[in-house]
Structure to design on (753 residues):
């Protein structure tokens, strides 16, 4: 072999080795990390939104210490308090009066005093009652004033207080003692001595004011799964109305369609052989109805949403800004998410947007199910908004925010990462057009939305609360229901009240009705209400007068009084209903925002019901009233346990006052009827179980404001659509050629329970 041949072969070998090394290095190299750019800064007055900020843990603690040192009565920590004790039930922000806030935000006035609202239960005195104090100024309180009579027109009786965790623990202890009187029955029916059974409360308790007599439904308790689908057929009625726990008693027992005076009577009938018993085995964790444990090993990961250059929104204190939007956010421990001072392009559109109440009303042929009307505000829709699971409850890269509350304890608690904020690509054009005639071009804009989300777990149900802000200037509010259905023991004509979903489990029919407050300020505080809908008119064609045309036309109407603006639930409503400003846009139409409701609500409780007035907000899918500082909420946490004499009655807000050029509030009810079925096991799915409403600009602007979006896409047949300078979509291959930085998964949501 010649020297020349050897050199050539050697050169080829070296080239091959070099190429292989390059390939291996390239294949093994980690993609570059995405470089986050600071979000575009929005113009807003720094720190102004703090006027709406939730209390900090330190502020809550200072309020507690102030009350302990200045009320002159003994206070027991609510986590240990008996009904006969005095205790601090909760401490929350006292939202300042709107007039004061607007003078501060818009008029250069003084910052309103920062104050707290403290709720106390006074059981250790001659006249037991609930008292509410405004405490301030924060951070160092020096005064408190009793606002109970001013807010509610009188004292609030002690029996209206929400049931505390300590009270439930004492009830459970009573029931366990009573169950010991029926050992042979429990062994036969449930393979239990009672300790493996769990109680589920119903509400309200009783039939008249002053009652505190509650049915509790018993279920098999299986670790690691929801017990709500495993009823054993046993229910007990407990009278826990006395201030002395020792005087509480089990009042009635229900089993498999029959009623008994006591567990002792139940045991006697069983021993005598005259009781029909359904013998249930203790469920096992791997086979129990409703287990959520995965049945298959994990597959390949699905699509992942990420921001190649970092979030395009900004979160500072309690203020979020995003592409012209500015929102102050917070969380009430009772009513859940609340937003304030919502502005678009610098103009306030909504002063307050807040959840008010969630009603779940059940039917069943068992006493617990048939008497259940949960008002979840009394349980705590914000307090039970727990930590969100990154990558499932919200996108992995969302911004997660802690929320703090003080309820049923003197020590503030934190629900870490319990509110999330993210930009969502809905994979749908917000608008688009492909032109195939005259000139050839394509134009469009992706539907990217800012989302603020929290999820409340109210016993068995999980409510997903979404507040969304679109680049068209629209606000979307949506709630999805998921979690476990509640159930009754299947017996008799159970299918008149739902569907059988297990061997002995009846999924009981129920309705979910949700209420919101929307204080719209459209181009100023003074607004009117206008409706538009279509009619047909029959006219001769004007060019020949020989034929008739059915011509649709707009029927416009200005609503003058509150009674006209109260639209009954499920009744026909004008298709267009708008809050109207007195000021016109460029085209001489009054600037306005339209309310568009998406709902499939069930039937409202008949007005003949003795408890209907406590949920009278549910009479209306929409009611518009004049805003009043003394009507801040549509309901009260005290309505749950005394719905027969409601502390707040929404129907009284509607008294036919004029609503022309006034500061107005829209009260909106959305909901759906749920008849549980086999596919609700293990959990109700969110598909088809979402309702809500839109606030949409209607002649508010001179054109769609999204035309100013930097995300807009346009290219014509004469342009190179693949050029980055022409089409921003062509830039993605390089702009998104990076790996998102995903922090290690962490979840601490079980630590605070």
């Amino acid at each position: 072999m010649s020297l020349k041949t050897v050199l050539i072969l050697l050169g080829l070998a070296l080239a091959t080795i070099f190429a292989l090394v390059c390939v291996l290095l390239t294949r093994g190299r980690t993609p570059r990390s995405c470089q986050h750019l600071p979000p575009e800064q929005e113009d807003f007055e720094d720190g102004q939104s703090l006027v709406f900020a939730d209390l900090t843990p330190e502020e809550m603690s200072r309020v507690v210490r102030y009350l302990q040192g200045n009320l002159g009565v003994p206070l027991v920590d609510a986590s240990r308090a008996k009904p006969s004790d005095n205790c601090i039930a909760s401490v929350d922000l006292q939202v300042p009066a709107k007039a004061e806030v607007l003078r501060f935000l818009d008029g250069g006035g003084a910052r309103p005093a920062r104050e707290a609202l403290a709720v106390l239960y006074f059981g250790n005195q001659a006249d037991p009652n609930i008292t509410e104090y405004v405490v301030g100024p924060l951070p160092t309180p020096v005064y408190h004033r009793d606002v109970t009579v001013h807010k509610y027109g009188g004292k609030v009786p002690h029996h209206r207080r929400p049931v505390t965790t300590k009270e439930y623990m004492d009830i459970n202890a009573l029931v366990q003692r009573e169950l010991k009187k029926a050992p042979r029955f429990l062994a036969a029916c449930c393979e239990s001595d009672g300790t493996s059974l769990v109680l589920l409360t119903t509400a309200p308790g009783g039939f008249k004011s002053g009652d505190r007599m509650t049915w509790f439904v018993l279920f098999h308790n299986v670790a690691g799964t929801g017990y709500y689908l495993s009823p054993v057929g046993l229910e007990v009625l407990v009278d826990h109305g006395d201030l002395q726990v020792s005087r509480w008693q089990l009042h009635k027992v229900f089993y498999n369609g029959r009623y008994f005076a006591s567990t002792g009577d139940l045991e006697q009938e069983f021993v005598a052989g005259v009781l029909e018993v359904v013998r249930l085995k203790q469920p096992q964790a791997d086979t129990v109805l409703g287990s959520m444990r995965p049945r298959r090993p994990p597959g390949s990961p699905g699509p992942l949403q990420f921001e190649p250059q970092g979030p395009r929104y900004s979160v500072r204190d309690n203020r979020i800004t995003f592409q012209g939007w500015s929102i102050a956010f917070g969380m009430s421990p009772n009513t859940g998410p609340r937003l304030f001072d919502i502005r678009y392009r610098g103009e306030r559109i909504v002063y307050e947007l807040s959840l008010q109440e969630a009603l779940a009303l059940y039917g069943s042929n068992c006493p617990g199910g048939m008497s259940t009307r949960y008002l979840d505000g009394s349980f705590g829709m914000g307090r039970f908004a727990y930590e969100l699971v990154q990558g499932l409850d919200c996108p992995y890269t969302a911004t997660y925010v802690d929320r703090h509350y003080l309820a049923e304890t003197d020590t503030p608690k934190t629900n870490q990462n319990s509110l999330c904020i993210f930009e969502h690509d809905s994979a749908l054009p917000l608008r688009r057009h492909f032109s195939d005639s005259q000139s050839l071009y394509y134009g469009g804009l992706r539907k990217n939305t800012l989302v603020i989300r929290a999820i409340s777990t109210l016993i068995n149900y999980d409510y997903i609360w979404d507040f969304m802000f679109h680049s068209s200037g629209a606000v979307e509010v949506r709630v999805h229901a998921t979690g476990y259905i509640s159930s009754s023991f299947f017996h008799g004509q159970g299918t008149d009240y739902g569907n059988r979903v297990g061997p002995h489990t009846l999924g009981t029919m129920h309705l979910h009705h949700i209420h919101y407050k929307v204080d719209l300020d459209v181009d100023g505080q003074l607004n009117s209400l206008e409706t538009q809908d279509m009619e047909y008119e029959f006219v001769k064609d004007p060019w020949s007068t020989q034929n008739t045309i059915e011509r649709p036309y707009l029927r416009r109407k200005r609503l003058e009084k509150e009674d006209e603006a109260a639209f009954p639930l499920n009744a026909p409503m004008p298709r267009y209903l708008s809050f109207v400003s007195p000021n016109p846009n460029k085209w001489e139409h009054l600037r306005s925002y339209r309310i568009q409701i998406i709902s499939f609500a069930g039937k409202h409780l008949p007005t003949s019901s003795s408890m209907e007035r406590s949920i009278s907000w549910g009479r209306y899918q929409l009611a518009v009233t004049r805003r009043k500082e003394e009507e801040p909420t549509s309901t009260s946490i005290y309505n749950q346990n005394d719905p027969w004499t409601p502390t707040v009655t929404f129907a009284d807000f509607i008294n036919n006052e004029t609503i022309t050029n006034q500061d107005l509030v829209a009260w909106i009810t959305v909901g759906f009827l749920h008849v549980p079925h086999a596919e609700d096991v293990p959990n109700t799915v969110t598909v088809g179980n979402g309702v809500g409403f839109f606030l949409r600009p209607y002649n508010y602007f001179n054109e769609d404001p999204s035309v100013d979006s930097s995300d807009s896409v346009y290219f014509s047949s004469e342009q190179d659509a693949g050029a980055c300078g022409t089409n921003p979509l062509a830039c993605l291959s390089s702009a998104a050629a990076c790996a998102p930085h995903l922090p290690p998964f962490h979840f601490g949501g079980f630590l605070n329970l």
